[in-house]
Write a structure and sequence with these properties.
Distance between the termini: 10 Å
Shape: globular
Number of helices: 22
Number of strands: 0
Structural class: mainly alpha
Helix content: over 70%
Length: about 550
């Protein structure tokens, strides 16, 4: 049984759409578990103080992972692994051993320093908790979570090797196991240990995220090991190449960090609402944007090494078109059905209707940038495949700065100009709610992402003329169909209002029926437009998923 399981997830997958759809399937599983995780947290705590502590404890480990952990990310190392293993198995192993040894030493030292200085750092970076009685729990939880960037960083390094061998399923299963660990911490450890128990669950999830890849690497005899045989000149070149990416991710994390810090100064529950809404809007990004960009990245890296610019551009166009094709209708449905989505996913226990309304409003503002977030991931992977890490750095630094400045400016406008406050509250149907100022943080984030997307698109078009025209055709088709679909779904909310809306299942059925009705109309519009993506999706599902012969794994596992 165990052998068959590891043999299945260790199978080789080739083909852009097949790999993307399989990654998306497991991403959907991971997101489903993520929603179960959030449901448990919402049921247990509501959007309240204890959950604010838990989410605040994530910030420093997240930043550490985005900075130090990104040195061994797949988007940086994968092209180097392809190059080194292409020159011989032992050459590739020597390189992976060197990167493993360097990362291990670096992350241990940095984590130890942060662990020791935690009591001095936390009150300054999360100012809302500086004089809070729960500060000791926050510090303890943060210290426990410092193990997660170490484990997830190793997992990133391992995933470069699994993706190099086109073992996408091993890579895809990892996030689901991560969420299982957090769920276990919520169910079993929190009742015993309190908030630190939740932090231990995060570490267990990170351990599972890393551990699932080890059997495949061992069977292939490419599991990295400690070594003193390090080619420092090559490592130095890689570090110089990866530093821009590290700064790129750090800029994004720093922007989110500042937004959460601002939320800590707002009404109780603001950090929780921010994270709940952000996690919900990340579902399409993970399922669509991350799946396509992960599936196409090894191919882009290989095509760049082979200097095949024409096919490189074709792969990018295909990926961008399908990201937009899938993301646009989801974005519209998330905005129209936001209350139904939030209430169905989170509404229970201590998560009341007031929490639902403010979280739904946050979700709508975050969702506006859904397509942009997915395209940014794709553009960044393309630039990294070429080894051009400075362009994403500059763009993301500008975007992150814009988000931070916008956060402060929009907060000031919200406080000082009642007409702006009333406009936002009325537009999102949250008039009379307390703590609505937190909506400015989501708005600032989405504005920064949209700016980021425009910059990346323009830069890529300059490098590869001809990218924009075919992608805009898809954007037009998808936008036209989605607007009509959204209108039909909105009218469907009235049509299906006969369900008992005081019950969660009634709200779910109202949203589901309205969404399905909208989707049917949307697909009909795309058929009338003779949409190319719709035809490609049908062919891919029919030929590559339904009837695909699953090849045996090359090596037996465990």
């Amino acid at each position: 049984m165990v052998k068959k399981w590891f043999s299945f997830i260790g199978r080789e997958i080739r083909g852009l759409h097949e790999a993307a759809y399989l990654l998306a399937t497991f991403a959907l599983l991971s997101q489903a578990l993520g929603l179960v995780r959030d449901k448990l947290l919402a049921y247990t705590f509501g959007a309240g103080h204890q959950l604010d502590v838990y989410y605040a404890a994530f910030r420093i480990p997240d930043f550490l992972f985005a900075s130090v952990g990104s040195l061994v990310s797949a988007s940086i190392l994968l092209p180097y692994f392809i190059d080194r293993f292409g020159k011989g198995e032992q050459t590739g192993k020597d390189f992976s051993n060197a990167m493993f040894t360097i990362f291990f030493g670096l992350i241990v030292v940095v984590s130890a320093v942060v662990y020791i200085l935690a009591p001095y750092i936390v009150p300054h970076v999360i100012p809302g908790f500086a004089n809070d009685p729960s500060l000791p729990d926050l510090i303890t939880s943060m210290r426990v979570m410092l193990l997660s960037p170490f484990l997830l960083g190793l997992s990133n390094l391992f995933s470069s090797l699994t993706q190099m061998r086109h073992r996408f399923l091993v890579y895809a299963v990892s996030p689901a196991l991560y969420n299982l660990g957090i769920i276990a911490g919520t169910v079993f450890l929190y009742p015993i240990l309190g908030i630190p128990g939740l932090a231990i669950g995060v570490v267990v999830g990170a351990l599972l995220h890393m551990g699932i890849q080890i059997p495949f690497l061992m069977s292939e005899k490419i599991l990295p090991r400690f070594t003193f045989n390090i080619d420092w000149s090559r490592v130095k070149a890689i570090i110089y190449s990866s530093l821009p990416r590290t700064f790129t991710l750090s800029a994004n994390q720093l922007a989110s960090f500042v937004l959460v810090s601002l939320a800590s100064l707002m009404a109780t529950g603001s950090i929780s609402v921010f994270n709940f809404a952000f996690n919900l809007q990340a579902v399409p990004l993970t399922i669509i944007g991350a799946s396509y960009s992960s599936a196409v990245f090894p191919t882009l890296s290989r095509l760049y090494v082979e200097k095949n610019g024409k096919e490189f551009l074709e792969k990018m166009i295909a990926s961008a078109r399908h990201i937009i094709f899938w993301s646009m209708p989801i974005m519209v449905l998330f905005i129209v059905l936001r209350a139904q989505i939030v209430r169905t996913v989170l509404g229970a226990g201590k998560f009341d209707w007031a929490d639902t309304r403010i979280t739904a409003a946050m979700l709508a503002l975050f969702t506006v940038s859904t397509i942009g977030q997915s395209l940014i991931v794709l553009f960044v992977r393309a630039f990294y495949a070429e080894g051009k890490t400075s362009k994403p750095l500059i763009i993301n630094a500008i975007s992150a700065s814009f988000i931070v400045v916008s956060g402060f400016v929009l907060m000031a406008l919200f406080k000082d100009f009642p007409i702006f406050q009333y406009f936002i509250e009325d537009l999102l149907k949250v008039g009379g709610q307390t703590g609505t100022i937190v909506l400015t943080l989501a708005l600032a984030y989405s504005l920064g992402v949209i700016l980021n997307t425009i910059f990346h698109w323009v830069m890529f078009e300059k490098s590869y003329p001809g990218f924009t025209k075919p992608v805009l055709v898809t954007l037009y088709h998808s936008f036209a169909a989605s607007v009509i679909m959204g209108y039909v779904a909105f009218q469907g909310l009235r049509l299906f209002a006969f369900f008992p809306l005081e019950k969660v299942w009634g709200i779910f059925m109202q949203g589901l029926c309205s969404g399905v009705l909208g989707l049917i109309v949307g697909v009909g519009i795309l058929i009338l437009l003779k949409n190319q993506e719709l035809a490609e999706v049908w062919r891919t599902l029919h030929r590559k998923i339904w009837k695909a012969i699953v090849p045996p794994a090359e090596v037996e596992h465990l």
